[in-house]
Every structure is written in structure tokens, then in C-alpha cells.
Amino acid sequence: MARIRSIQSGKAEILAGTDRWSGIRKLPLEGPVAIDSLGIAGDMQVDKRRHGGPFKALCVYCTAYYCDWKNDLGLEMPIGSFGENIAIDDLRDEDACVGDVYAIGNTVKVRVTGPRGPCESLSIHWKRKGFQLIAKDTRKTGFYLSVMEPGRITAGDEFHLLERPAPDWNIIAFWDAFEKYNNRDQKRMITETIPGIDPDWARRAGKEEQAGGNGVG
């Protein structure tokens, strides 16, 4: 059973050694934490085009990946280092499907809306050039949630799967469809049939089709 290890929120800060603002550094919150349609009140996102909003209300990341980054890249990263709001045990990206509906604790209901697309702030913050691309290429990105029913959550709460309308499309398979195989019919089918998917993916698929390319980025 997947269980919340910790809940994080962050403020906009200037990334060290740059003039770039980011909200990637998240710090633990004492629970219970109120969750509404936009996630956690006060949690800041600087790039509103890529982060935040109702389809990216909460970012989830599996704690097991931090051991992988230590072993593979020698990076000592505390929980919250990927800008996640929810650090979760035992729910890797291959275990979560786009469209999944979960109950968290006793009150909150959420839906998986798509993968989290790591941005350059991750690489700058951890002084590891191309780190966001490594995360994406190894399919350890985490994913976003929309909030269907608000309430309160706390560390230790479990994720209970209520619905799985698209069992073939876990986060890894979804990334592969968009960035590996580039099958336009498949991408159109995914974005038109999976309930609750972030509409940004449909817009991306449409732009790639018009351009006749992969649009990977």
C-alpha cells in the first residue's frame, strides 16, 4: 500500500549563482495539511505555464528514487528535492496510470493527470547539467494530480486506488508514447480517451502533428 512519507510546500527563491527564480525547493509541512483545487495554499510556482493550476495541483514523487540518484549519480538529495508536494513510498511511476483516481486518507480524492515534466531548474538547483533530461530518460519524473474532492492529508496517509480507467498507460508507457515512439494516432487516442488528462498533453500532441516532428523537450 502506497503511503505518504511527507508533504512539502515551497516559496519562490533565486537559484544560487543565477538570477533565475524558482519554487523547486520544497520544505516539509506539519500535518494535517489542507488541500484544495489548486493544491496546497501558499505553495508557489514561478513558471505558471509549466507548473501549477488545477491539472498540476499536486506533484508526487516516489521516495525510492532518491536512493537511485545516490547510487547512480552520487547525489545526496533530501525529500522534496524534486519539487514534489507529496513524497510517497511504494508508488513508482510504473505503478501509477494516467487517469487513476485515488482516495487519500479520509477526505481527499485525486486523479493522476499526467507525468511531471522536469525542467532546467532541477539541473541548476543541483548543479548537475542535464539532470532534468536524465530524470526523463530514466523515467523517474513523478506525476501530477488534480484534486477532485478537497480536504486534509497528513504524513502516513495511504493512497487507495478507486478507479483505473486506462491500465495500459502508466507514467512510463505514457512518456514512451510521447517521446519514444511518436505515434500520432496513439497520442491522439490517449489524449482523447483518458478521463481527466491534463489538456496540455492534447495541445502538445496537436502542435507536434502540425510541425511534423517529435516536439521532445
Describe the protein.
The protein is an alpha+beta fold and 217 residues long. The chain has an eight-stranded mixed β-sheet with strand order 4-1-7-6-10-9-8-12. It is globular, with a radius of gyration of 16 Å. Helix 5 packs antiparallel against helix 6.
Q: Would you summarize the structure shown here?
A:
The chain is α+β, with helices and mostly antiparallel strands and 217 residues long. Helix content is 26%, strand content 24%.
Number of strands: 12
Strand order of the largest sheet: 4-1-7-6-10-9-8-12
Structural class: alpha+beta
User: Assembly type of the shown chains?
Assistant: single chain
* Rounded Rg: 16 Å
How much helix is in the residues? 25-40%
Biggest sheet descriptor = 8 strands, mixed
How many domain modules?
Answer: 1
Q: What's the architecture in CATH terms?
A: Beta Barrel
**First-to-last CA distance:** 33 Å
CATH superfamily: PK beta-barrel domain-like
What is the CATH level 1 assignment?
Answer: Mainly Beta
Morphology call: globular
Instruction: Give the DSSP E fraction (strand runs of 2 or more residues).
Output: 15-25%
Total DSSP helices: 6
Order of helices and strands: EEEEEEHEEEHHEEEHHH
How would you state the average pLDDT, rounded? 90
Taking pLDDT < 50 over at least 5 consecutive residues as the criterion, the unreliable ranges are: 213-217
